[in-house]
Design a protein that fits this description.
4 helices
Length: 146
Amino acid sequence: MKKLLPPVLFALCAAAMFAAERVPGADALPTTGRLGGAAAVAAGLVLLVAARVQFARARTNVYTFDEPGQLVTGGVFRLSRHPMYLGFTLVLLGLALCLRSVPALGLAAAFAGVADRWYIAFEERWLRSKFGPAYLEYAARTRKWF
């Protein structure tokens, strides 16, 4: 069975947000949230890029369903054990605020829920089994999300 990669789920959620914008009454959020939405998109993109660069520098695997090569704990990974999922979620939240869309907020929350219960749970089991005490120590001092 082919596994749904996080960037694909992110893209599907984003596309669904733009489709939901056409639903009458979906744009019920105040326009004052657009500035915060833009800031959330920018912060999310910064986290995504910074985390990807750190994986590249460590020459380790970035793909969710492939075996981790190294435990990356520096940089943005000092703030969050999962800055890429946090980045994806912030971008979706920001898009929802920019679109002023209540259904889009639900899609951002759904992405965060799937990321937490499926992707993150899978990755953390694998990291615990591969890196043992080193991962447990890292997890004890670093928040899951932020």
